[in-house]
Amino acid sequence: MENRVEGGKELRIHCKSKDDDLGVYTLKTLDDFIFKFRPNIWGTTLFYCSMDWGEGQTHWFDIYIFDRDYRRCTNCQWIIKKSGPCFYDAGAHKYDFCYQWNH
């Protein structure tokens, strides 16, 4: 996940799964946060992240959902913007799968 929040804002990220808490990280513009894991054998792996950039709201998003992501990436890449996260489409070589926040 790379911080592309408009206005040069620092991005605070806190990611978790059912079993793992990855901690809280603060990213400056264009900094990234990388984590590695192996999907579980049941195909139910889910990582979700809360994110804020100091404007009084916390947003969250399911950054990895097995059913959505397992076949489309082994190295999932996201950029984070105020409007929501955008997933990198390796075939098109651009971040063109943008999502709204879960809130």
UniProtKB/TrEMBL annotation:
Signal peptide: none annotated. One of its GO terms (biological process) is rejection of self pollen. It comes from the Eukaryota. It is found in: Secreted. Keywords: Secreted, Self-incompatibility, Signal. Pfam families: Self-incomp_S1. Transmembrane segments: none annotated. Coiled coil: none annotated. One of its GO terms (cellular component) is extracellular region. Belongs to the plant self-incompatibility (S1) protein family. PANTHER family: PTHR31232, S-PROTEIN HOMOLOG (PTHR31232:SF149). This is S-protein homolog. It comes from Linum tenue.
